[in-house]
Structure formats: C-alpha cells, structure tokens
Amino acid sequence: MPARKPLKVATFNINGVRTRLASLLAWLEREAPDIVCLQELKAPDEAFPVEPIRDAGYGAIWHGQRSWNGVAILARGADPLESRRGLPGDPKDTQSRYLEAAAHGLIVGCLYLPNGNPQPGPKFDYKLAWFDRFIEYAQGLVESEHPVVLAGDYNVVPTDEDIYNPRSWRKDALLQPESRARYADLLAQGWTDSLRQQFGEERVYTFWDYFRQHWERNSGLRIDHLLLNRALAPRLKEAGVDRWVRGLPHPSDHAPTWVSLARER
C-alpha cells in the first residue's frame, strides 16, 4: 500500500482577502495545502468570498471585521468544524483575531496577534494583554492529547536572527523585549517552533514590507509562525515559505508559510 501524502498546513496573512483573491486562488491551485489559516481579511462576514473558495475545493469558516483584522480557516475537501470563535478572557474585546476548528484530524488555532504600534501606548498595552490571554489559553492546548497547531501572524520577531537588520526596527513593537519574552514564555510551555526546528540557524523570512525595495533585497522578517504541541511535533517532516506568492503583482507583504506533517497511521 503506497504511503499517504503528508498533511500540509499553511498560514497566510492575506492583507485583504478580496483584494488578493486572485493570488489566493492561484496559490491554492498550485500548492494545494490541506489546511489554511488566513489573517487580515479586512472584510465583514458577509463580504467573505466563500463561493470562489468553495469552487477551488475548500470548505471555510471565518470571523470577519470591516476594514481591519479578520481570520479564516480553510480545509481542502472538507468543512472545518468550529470549536472556538474569539480568545477567552476579555468579554469587551470584540476584535476578530482568533478562530479555532477541527480539520483533517487536527485542532487548528488561527490567530492574528495585535501589532502593537506605536509603542509605548494603548495599542502596545493591548498587544501584551492579548498575548497574556493567549498564553493562558494555549497552556491547555499544549498538554492536549489531540494534535494541535497554532498558526498565524504573531507580530513578533523572536530574535535578531529573525530579521535582516534589527537596528532600524529597535523601537518597533515587533522587537520589544516584552513581546519577545512572551513568545519565549509560549514556547516554554512545550510548543515547537516548526520553522526554527526545520531551518536551525539558517535565516528564513515570511514578511517583507512595501518600502525601500525590501522584497527585492530580501530584507525580511520572520513573524508568521506555526507552533506544534507535544502530540503533533513528532510528525513534523518539513517546513517552508512559498516565497513566489510575494512576488506576484499587487501582493500581500507576507508569504504563505507552511509545515508538512506525517499523517496518523
């Protein structure tokens, strides 16, 4: 009996799902990921382009928000089974930043962690408070006997090795010691940072801003992460970044980032 193809799970900050729909569909057709986490939909629920996504062979759930934020989970040939909408811990927080579902035998948490700029200030305070809530919630998932992946735009550059040159970014919320310390605290729960596990000390980027020819010069940052819990980490086979998507016309400033996982026997 031939071996089953690995399961490909990807995260992609689409930076406007309606604006980048053509790029999204081209990527789905070429790479055929089994599970996709999207961030920054920038569309209310009623404007999510579900029909062309279904025509591409994907079921979908989404949590939209007009003009900002928004997250979605797609599953190839299946409908994700929603298990949580919104992060617990603050009933006053109405921003669309967390969505969770079961798909293809995994529990998938899709997140768009707050950017936090400008800092210091209320936006950075919100970032840290959201991160604290996320860490508390993730503690239960890392210990789950079920395989869990937490995938998304974390808006954190974990170390200076995850950015082309930290000097001009030192005041940015993505590099602040408080942001990095929380990411380290999250990993300390027992999560595996799949890209770092795959690439070791090699530099790998997932985001290139639109300024100063940063894409052309490969002046990037690694801020999109896929974390695997203890039950799932042993199944990691490969990880990577579909950089070609960033080179398409009118692209998102992120590229899809993915892991390949052995299927359960």
TrEMBL record:
**Where would I find the Endonuclease/exonuclease/phosphatase domain in this sequence?**
10-254
Q: Quote the gene name from the UniProt entry.
A: xth
Source species, domain of life = Bacteria
Instruction: Say if the entry is tagged with keyword Metal-binding.
Output: yes
The keyword Protease appears for this protein: no
Please spell out the taxonomic lineage of the organism that makes this protein. Answer: Bacteria, Pseudomonadati, Pseudomonadota, Gammaproteobacteria, Lysobacterales
Recorded hits in Pfam families, A to Z, give:
Exo_endo_phos
Q: Which InterPro entries match?
A: AP_endonuc_1 (IPR004808), AP_endonuclease_F1_BS (IPR020847), Endo/exonu/phosph_ase_sf (IPR036691), Endo/exonuclease/phosphatase (IPR005135), ExoIII-like (IPR037493)
The top EC class, named as a word, is hydrolase
Q: Which cofactors?
A: Mg(2+)
Provide the protein name: Exodeoxyribonuclease III
Q: From the UniProt record, which GO molecular function terms apply? A: double-stranded DNA 3'-5' DNA exonuclease activity
Q: Which UniProt keywords apply?
A: Hydrolase, Magnesium, Metal-binding
- Report the EC number(s), separated by commas if there are several: 3.1.11.2
Similarity field: Belongs to the DNA repair enzymes AP/ExoA family.
